[in-house]
Amino acid sequence: MEQIFDRIYIDSDICNGKPIIRGKRITVQTIMEYLSAGETVDEILKQYPSLVAEDITACMRYATELMNHSFIIKQAVA
């Protein structure tokens, strides 16, 4: 398991290698989807009692850090 960010890890044997929170089977993507749907941190913590607020903050920081990279979007050929 490789720590790639504070509290965020990648393990090819867990969740198909997606970034996860502290070795749990909870992906950063899952937390970000809840947040983007309007869930509050408290609501997420009730659904995932093994998490703490700092885990959710780490997901947001990780997602923000990803946006520091350049991306090229290719148009689909019709």
TrEMBL record:
It holds the Pfam family DUF433. It comes from the Bacteria. Coiled coil: none annotated. This is DUF433 domain-containing protein. It comes from Pedobacter fastidiosus.
